[in-house]
Amino acid sequence: MAVALAQEARGNRExxxxxxxxxxxxxxxxRGFLAQNLTDAVRICVPAGNLAVAxxxxxxxxxxxxxxxxxxxxxxxxxxxxxxxxSDAVDLYADAAVRWAGFPSPLEQGLALLGRGRCLIATGxxxxxxxxxxxxxxxxxxxxxxxxxxxxDDLIAGxxxxxx
Length: 164
Prior knowledge:
Order of helices and strands: HHHHHHHHHH
Helix content: over 70%
Largest sheet: none
Number of helices: 10
Radius of gyration: 16 Å
Strand content: under 5%
Distance between the termini: 43 Å
């Protein structure tokens, strides 16, 4: 998965998806291991337009363990957003954020809040979005994740402009 993430970062989406598919095959009989990298796998497949691979990986994950349930909740939200089911995605991202807060994983919690904020903006609910985005920004600031903080600053500024 590390190589798949590197390939995606370089813009080699086809290669990244091929590596995700290989990861899915290698972990076919080890679904707990699959769940450890499921959110990354889905986040690679979706922008590449390969929802089928993402859905296939997600379908094999058991949701009993807290981390696995949080990963699956995030993936459900990412896929709903990709399909344009924004109202559902808003609720699914909220569920994922709560699950990641309980796990905890500040990075994944922040990414879920960012996703929720993005969907709220897309549905015209910028006031609600701003609160979610500010909470995500605080999490990312604590992690010193400067690129994410910068991206959130732009989104938050956009919500302020819409609300004025």
